[in-house]
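Technical note accompanying the year-one report. For the benefit of new consortium partners, we illustrate the data format agreed upon in the data management plan: each record pairs a sequence with a structure-token string. No post-processing was applied to the example shown here.
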Amino acid sequence: MRTFERSLPMSLLKAREAVMKKFIPHLRAHDLSPQQWRVLRALYDSPAGLEMSALSERCFLLMPSLSRIIQNLAARELVMRRIAEHDQRCSIISLHAQGRRLVELMAPESEARYTHITAVFGYGKLELLYELLDELVEKLEAAEQEHHPSSHELLD
């Protein structure tokens, strides 16, 4: 068995913690958790809003956690929930005007932190890291599909 320090999940978590140390003080100054910020950022990039399930997938949050986050953000009037026209069981979550203003207020400081990370690590290396991580995800998902095709793929 490989050493604990050289396990891929531990290396990814270690890198995540190092990066988040740069962002967490800024989030706390605005009374936000990293998970709440992910939700606000995802919604900012989706002006029409997102269904809860799509938001859950996009933010890598389990539905029970996301439900609590949405309740909190809605109580703070940062997000709003509406019923989907096509399915009364689905909720569409979108940014409230106040939520949009908060993201825009926080964006310059967030970008400054990205600029710092880029300066410390190097633009080329950071872009390569993004590409390698994307490739890792793609290859693992493709391998999963080869070993466990979905039911509709079995019917083709």
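Partners are asked to follow this layout when depositing records. The chain has a mean pLDDT of 92.
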